[in-house]
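Consider the record:
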Amino acid sequence: MTKEVEAVHEQAAEYSAKDYTDPPPAPLIDFEELTKWSLYRAAIAEFIATLLFLYITVLTVIGYKHQADTKAGGDICGGVGILGIAWAFGGMIFVLVYCTAGISGGHINPAVTFGLFLARKVSLIRAVLYMVAQCLGAICGVGFVKAFQSAYYNRYGGGVNVMAPGHTKGVGLAAEIIGTFVLVYVVFSATDPKRNARDSHIPVLAPLPIGFAVFMVHLATIPITGTGINPARSFGAAVIYNGDKAWDEHWIFWVGPFIGAFIAAVYHQYILRAGAIKALGSFRSNA
């Protein structure tokens, strides 16, 4: 019995002694990547995913506003409400990340791409191509909404992100920074290969927490900014609507998400993953 216990302890010690090796960082610029079909396939996946994301979500927003418009015979309590809109955004991110994660990583958001680029998960070339594809996909997605809902599109604001009355630009910027921080932080945590290797007993379906993060952030910030946290979403709606107030505060929906993504990348990589400590050399506490 004693020998069996010792064997178990030795086996456990051997298992715990195994070191985890981080995957190598993506090269900053990899021109060879431009010759690979996988890069363009991933960009196409980002384009289609962002198109579908904007089509479903903006259509949901406009449909809700029409159903709740009492002047048009609607019911102020009708439609899906803010809860339903938040579910539309979070649910679409869940299903689209699930579909595209194995092809492009399922970014569907320039802020997410920017955060992963800062963490050296993607190269500069891939990051730029993703962002272009996402913005073009967003424009096409909202274009389909306008084509199918031409009677209501302009009347209900085209799904454009604008500051709600009673809130300052500073409040809106802070809301976008914090909301994007939450999203990108969850993306890093849910896709962390070290966590998957270390905590294999905790199954994590990465698209699920990411979708829930989008859902929760929308619940909190729809009354403030309409919730951007995705520059492509805000840009696509502004380009197609291109009307009153569409561009007045548009900078908030780029600056805020990029700052939030930057903070999330620094927090996860250099504090939670101890990147700064590794860079300076490991040390042991004498406490």
